[in-house]
Write a structure and sequence with these properties.
The protein has 280 residues and is mainly alpha-helical. It folds into two domains: 215 residues, Orthogonal Bundle (Tetracycline Repressor, domain 2); 38 residues. The chain contains twelve helices and two strands, in the order H-H-H-H-H-H-H-H-E-E-H-H-H-H. A hairpin with a 2-residue loop joins strand 1 and strand 2. The longest helix has 36 residues.
Length: 280
Amino acid sequence: MIRPAQSSKFEVQGSRFFEFRKWAGFVKFSHTVFALPFALASMEVAARDRRGWPGWRTFGLVLAAMVCARTCAMSFNRIVDRDFDKANPRTANRPLPTGEISLAGAWALCLLSGLALVVASWFINKICFYLSPVAILWVCFYSLTKRFTDFTHIYLGIALALAPIGAWLAVKGGFDFFPVENGWLVLKKSAFLPLILAGAVVFWLIGFDIIYALQDYEFDRRHGLHSLAGHHPGQSVARTLAGAPAQFEVDQHRVLSAQRAHQRGVSDGNDRRGGVRGRV
């Protein structure tokens, strides 16, 4: 039998867990993992002299800065797109359109996470601290680009590509594109490495986001929102590629049905020939 005090304790814990899930779902906290591998890879390469480990302090601060930057960007995105989200059947159940989270609460989370990013950057090093406002402006600016350009995916790709660049700066404290040791050029320590990784992130994100945007193709066209998926000649190709898995399932079902029909026909033919031989 659960005592009243224990029951009250469980209710409080359950309430806190529900609040955490609500706010984590608001900013899609689980999607932070998308940018995390790129930042950690860049951090590991930058810390090559220390066997790829920059230390717990730097690791923790980089992780905190990443989470804060993404939380700030996602909060801002939900705020400025709240009217579109409310009108879109796919997103109408999000916490802000439904009133589960207030607009004031969303702004508070956005501003506090942005401030936390600046604070974390201050503890990392000076260059990260000086560049932190630039990072905040860029990751938030992306949310406005769908209103005036079809190349919104590129802006998002660059925003995500800031992760490996920031992680490199957190470890190295600057950029050295042509490092020299003992009179030799050491390209494995060159700042070109995080830029190459950042470029890969941009192209990966562009492809991913174009496919994601296909979900709202009709809605975006009706409401004047821009994307490469809906406003360029390649849109039909993109939609075809997006629908390829479903079409593959249909084709697979047709092939299996034809195979089963063929097997039944062969089986029936064998039975009939067997019956004729039996009578003979």
